[in-house]
Design brief:
The protein is mainly α. It has one domain. The protein contains 2 helices and no strands. The protein is flat.
């Protein structure tokens, strides 16, 4: 149980520290205007991950086989 609390504590600290890393980001090398929005990449990553999950669920509904398929 102690290990689980340590993992949760480390994860909590990591998640709370990562937004401050934007102060070290070089905004001069941005290519698009939307790259300048703080938090764009985490939001983009989250939405991309959710999109992949939704696509996988849709494929599972389309290509589902019956329970007796191999019988």
């Amino acid at each position: 149980m102690k290990t689980r609390k340590n993992i949760i504590y480390i994860l909590f600290v990591f998640v709370n520290i990562t937004p401050y890393l934007y102060s070290f980001y070089d905004f001069k090398k941005i290519h698009f205007g939307i790259d300048n929005i703080i938090g764009f990449y985490p939001i983009y990553g989250f939405l991309a991950c959710m999109g992949l999950i939704i696509i996988a669920k849709a494929f599972s509904l389309i290509f589902k086989k019956d329970d007796t398929y191999y019988d």
